[in-house]
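Re: export button greyed out
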Amino acid sequence: MFNQVTILGSGLLGASLAKAIRKENLANSIRIWARRKATLDSCISEKWCDQIEEDLIKSVYKSNLVIICTPVDSIAEIIKKIAPIMDQGTLLTDVGSVKEVICQVAKEAFAHSRGKFIGSHPMAGSEKSGMKFADENLFSGRSCIVSKLDDQDKQEVEVISDFWEKLGMSVYELSPYEHDQAISFFSHLPHFLSSTLAKSLDQKPDKWKNISGMGLKDTTRIAEGDPELWKQIFLMNKNNILQAVEEWEKSLNEIKLYLKDSKNEKIYSFLKDGMNFRKKL
Amino acid sequence: MFNQVTILGSGLLGASLAKAIRKENLANSIRIWARRKATLDSCISEKWCDQIEEDLIKSVYKSNLVIICTPVDSIAEIIKKIAPIMDQGTLLTDVGSVKEVICQVAKEAFAHSRGKFIGSHPMAGSEKSGMKFADENLFSGRSCIVSKLDDQDKQEVEVISDFWEKLGMSVYELSPYEHDQAISFFSHLPHFLSSTLAKSLDQKPDKWKNISGMGLKDTTRIAEGDPELWKQIFLMNKNNILQAVEEWEKSLNEIKLYLKDSKNEKIYSFLKDGMNFRKKL
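Workaround output, generated via the alternate export path:
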């Protein structure tokens, strides 16, 4: 599909992506760039890595597709650096969990670039981080959101969507603004609550921790995610997240009131609505 | 181990327990009682059911161990009915997720009984309910809490603990009071938050629901639990749960404030504490 693909960053997502591209045979050659030389050295022996490149600018040369898989708060900086030197027709995308800030920066950076940028957010990840947990099936069966900068970019959206679909993803197109709103409710809010639950229970007696069941393990699984990554996401989507929390608190206060007043029927129908929502996921 | 075991109720827990007892060969004969004749008729053809009995009182006769697996808000009533007619040395236990109310009722009911009661809370379950989801491995690898009524009952605690351990459970002893407190934080609070999250998101646009990832699926899995069961649990452990929610809200307000003020380091260490808690589970 592509002759040359460059992946910037070789953490969990970057390395998994390289593995998946190799598995689906979507690139003749995969080039990896990473900030640290030691990281690159550990890539070159891997089946999913054909070339390594220490220089960010050089890593992009003659690539047909470049995918930024670095920490979310470094994506905008990288876009600014590589947009001006991109070859004609080169497509740039990213895997960041936040889209509005990134697409805003990209819009300015690509105003005079020969390449094109389409934002992506493949909703794949793990509570584990790092190359050693890389998984060629990480993307398969998951959702991916793509966001375009400009209504003119229909063809590029198709190429990028097709790429994610070939990795087994279901692709949805949302504007950067709507992405950040939707994701604040459907991804960042759950993480916020999960981490808050974990932090809160950490203060309880050790012997109580023995009795945790699968329910607690599931609700707190994502709290095991990289705190540095999630700090960046929270800060980059701060206003939407605070608004989502505030809306969610309305539901919290509703059920608290029902419970205080022992409103049998109200509690039942509240829980039933929640059950029905979950069944449809 | 036991000659005759009676299981009261043949829902997910009762039927799974019968299967597990058969698998581990812990009873010569398993007798099932259920409220509805049709339910009993569907049990008798199963390998894990040797006898069925429609009459609650008769179902207990000559049993060495009786386990109440009915909905949690019916357990106290059943204890009151069967305590007076129990044979010398018969042990009664239950699987209710709440222990204080149940043990209080049992204490009075067993003051003049020839049998003995030890409360149990095997922390096994599923978001699915009903006999058709019964699983002989439901208890294996999970925690179980046992609560005694009286400090004299050491020997009975040992027999009941041994029984759960033979089903693969790790057994911990807590007083009914401490059980309800601990469980309000480690089980009921997670369910409360999970259901509230699910209920809150149910009001969002349908197209946003497509983009839910594994994080949301995990954090809301338990919200798919039987709303009738969870309504009962919430009402029976209401004061502890409301207190747990209140304590948890302190953590919520803490992280909200850090986020509002973009307190980089504070957010990071909050998330890191949560991560470390989860890693130890």
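The radius of gyration of chain A is 21 Å. The button fix ships in the next patch.
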